[in-house]
Amino acid sequence: MANATKHPSDNAAASNLIWIRNANQLESFHVDGSFDVRGRVAPKAKSFAISLGANASNLNICFKPDLTKRIFTCNYKKDGKYGQEMIGRSCPFHEGKEVEIHFSLEATDSGSIVTVFLPDHTHFRFSNPVGVNYYKYVAVDGDFQHYPDRS
User: Fold this and answer.
1) Is residue 86 in some structural domain?
2) What sign does the CA torsion over 115, 116, 117, 120 have?
Protein backbone atom coordinates (compact mmCIF):
# COMPACT_ATOMS: atom_id res chain seq x y z
CA MET A 1 0.00 0.00 0.00
CA ALA A 2 1.27 3.44 -0.89
CA ASN A 3 0.92 6.60 1.15
CA ALA A 4 -2.33 8.53 0.83
CA THR A 5 -2.34 11.10 -1.94
CA LYS A 6 -4.00 14.49 -2.07
CA HIS A 7 -7.40 14.45 -3.72
CA PRO A 8 -7.77 16.66 -6.83
CA SER A 9 -10.80 18.50 -5.40
CA ASP A 10 -8.64 19.71 -2.47
CA ASN A 11 -7.10 22.14 -4.95
CA ALA A 12 -9.42 25.16 -4.98
CA ALA A 13 -7.89 26.25 -8.29
CA ALA A 14 -8.88 23.04 -10.11
CA SER A 15 -10.25 24.51 -13.33
CA ASN A 16 -11.97 21.44 -14.71
CA LEU A 17 -13.76 20.21 -11.61
CA ILE A 18 -17.27 19.08 -12.52
CA TRP A 19 -19.96 18.88 -9.85
CA ILE A 20 -22.81 16.50 -10.57
CA ARG A 21 -25.91 17.92 -8.94
CA ASN A 22 -28.81 15.77 -10.09
CA ALA A 23 -30.63 15.63 -6.75
CA ASN A 24 -33.14 13.01 -7.84
CA GLN A 25 -30.39 10.69 -9.01
CA LEU A 26 -28.26 11.20 -5.90
CA GLU A 27 -31.17 10.83 -3.47
CA SER A 28 -31.81 7.40 -4.99
CA PHE A 29 -28.21 6.29 -4.44
CA HIS A 30 -28.39 4.83 -0.95
CA VAL A 31 -27.02 1.61 0.52
CA ASP A 32 -27.56 -1.26 -1.89
CA GLY A 33 -27.92 1.28 -4.70
CA SER A 34 -25.77 2.06 -7.69
CA PHE A 35 -24.51 5.02 -9.67
CA ASP A 36 -23.08 5.22 -13.21
CA VAL A 37 -20.58 7.74 -14.51
CA ARG A 38 -20.50 8.01 -18.30
CA GLY A 39 -18.12 10.04 -20.39
CA ARG A 40 -15.09 10.22 -22.63
CA VAL A 41 -11.46 9.97 -21.61
CA ALA A 42 -9.73 13.03 -23.07
CA PRO A 43 -7.23 12.73 -25.91
CA LYS A 44 -3.71 12.76 -24.43
CA ALA A 45 -5.22 11.99 -21.00
CA LYS A 46 -2.88 11.43 -18.07
CA SER A 47 -5.36 10.81 -15.23
CA PHE A 48 -8.79 11.56 -13.87
CA ALA A 49 -10.61 11.06 -10.58
CA ILE A 50 -14.15 10.19 -9.53
CA SER A 51 -15.06 10.80 -5.89
CA LEU A 52 -18.24 9.71 -4.08
CA GLY A 53 -19.23 10.42 -0.50
CA ALA A 54 -21.22 12.53 1.93
CA ASN A 55 -19.09 15.65 1.37
CA ALA A 56 -15.53 16.67 0.49
CA SER A 57 -14.31 15.63 3.97
CA ASN A 58 -15.96 12.19 3.97
CA LEU A 59 -15.41 10.22 0.76
CA ASN A 60 -16.35 6.56 0.45
CA ILE A 61 -14.10 6.33 -2.57
CA CYS A 62 -11.75 8.41 -4.68
CA PHE A 63 -11.13 6.32 -7.81
CA LYS A 64 -8.18 7.61 -9.84
CA PRO A 65 -6.96 5.90 -13.03
CA ASP A 66 -3.42 6.87 -14.10
CA LEU A 67 -3.15 6.32 -17.84
CA THR A 68 0.60 7.06 -17.91
CA LYS A 69 1.44 4.30 -15.40
CA ARG A 70 -1.47 2.03 -16.49
CA ILE A 71 -2.69 1.61 -12.90
CA PHE A 72 -5.51 2.97 -10.77
CA THR A 73 -5.63 3.97 -7.13
CA CYS A 74 -8.50 4.06 -4.65
CA ASN A 75 -8.63 5.92 -1.40
CA TYR A 76 -11.17 7.10 1.16
CA LYS A 77 -11.34 10.18 3.33
CA LYS A 78 -12.85 10.26 6.83
CA ASP A 79 -13.21 13.50 8.82
CA GLY A 80 -10.83 15.22 6.41
CA LYS A 81 -8.05 12.63 6.67
CA TYR A 82 -7.12 10.16 3.96
CA GLY A 83 -6.89 6.47 4.70
CA GLN A 84 -4.71 3.79 3.21
CA GLU A 85 -4.54 3.69 -0.58
CA MET A 86 -5.24 0.61 -2.71
CA ILE A 87 -3.39 0.22 -6.02
CA GLY A 88 -4.88 -1.70 -8.94
CA ARG A 89 -2.45 -3.13 -11.46
CA SER A 90 -4.58 -2.62 -14.56
CA CYS A 91 -6.13 0.39 -16.23
CA PRO A 92 -8.79 -0.42 -18.86
CA PHE A 93 -9.09 3.22 -19.98
CA HIS A 94 -7.80 4.60 -23.27
CA GLU A 95 -7.36 8.12 -24.58
CA GLY A 96 -10.37 9.42 -26.52
CA LYS A 97 -12.62 6.45 -25.69
CA GLU A 98 -16.14 6.58 -24.26
CA VAL A 99 -16.57 4.68 -21.00
CA GLU A 100 -19.11 3.83 -18.34
CA ILE A 101 -18.05 3.13 -14.76
CA HIS A 102 -20.59 1.60 -12.42
CA PHE A 103 -20.38 2.08 -8.62
CA SER A 104 -22.40 0.01 -6.16
CA LEU A 105 -22.60 0.69 -2.40
CA GLU A 106 -23.12 -1.84 0.43
CA ALA A 107 -23.12 -1.17 4.15
CA THR A 108 -21.07 -3.34 6.52
CA ASP A 109 -20.71 -3.42 10.31
CA SER A 110 -17.38 -1.62 10.01
CA GLY A 111 -18.16 0.91 7.25
CA SER A 112 -19.03 0.29 3.63
CA ILE A 113 -17.92 -1.54 0.51
CA VAL A 114 -17.94 0.08 -2.90
CA THR A 115 -17.90 -2.29 -5.85
CA VAL A 116 -16.55 -0.69 -9.03
CA PHE A 117 -17.38 -2.24 -12.41
CA LEU A 118 -14.86 -1.24 -15.09
CA PRO A 119 -15.32 -0.95 -18.87
CA ASP A 120 -13.41 -4.20 -19.54
CA HIS A 121 -16.12 -6.11 -17.56
CA THR A 122 -13.87 -6.60 -14.54
CA HIS A 123 -14.72 -5.35 -11.08
CA PHE A 124 -13.17 -4.88 -7.67
CA ARG A 125 -14.41 -4.21 -4.14
CA PHE A 126 -13.07 -1.36 -2.02
CA SER A 127 -13.71 -1.46 1.75
CA ASN A 128 -13.55 1.64 3.90
CA PRO A 129 -14.60 2.79 7.39
CA VAL A 130 -16.48 5.91 6.27
CA GLY A 131 -19.90 4.28 6.67
CA VAL A 132 -21.92 6.78 4.66
CA ASN A 133 -25.26 5.22 3.69
CA TYR A 134 -25.83 7.53 0.72
CA TYR A 135 -23.91 9.82 -1.61
CA LYS A 136 -24.62 13.53 -1.67
CA TYR A 137 -21.21 14.48 -3.04
CA VAL A 138 -20.02 13.34 -6.46
CA ALA A 139 -17.06 14.99 -8.18
CA VAL A 140 -15.31 14.21 -11.47
CA ASP A 141 -11.94 15.83 -12.06
CA GLY A 142 -9.10 15.62 -14.56
CA ASP A 143 -8.88 14.36 -18.13
CA PHE A 144 -12.47 13.13 -18.38
CA GLN A 145 -15.54 14.67 -19.99
CA HIS A 146 -18.63 13.62 -18.00
CA TYR A 147 -21.87 13.02 -19.94
CA PRO A 148 -25.14 14.02 -18.29
CA ASP A 149 -27.47 11.19 -17.32
CA ARG A 150 -29.19 9.87 -20.46
CA SER A 151 -32.07 8.04 -18.78
Assistant:
1) yes
2) negative
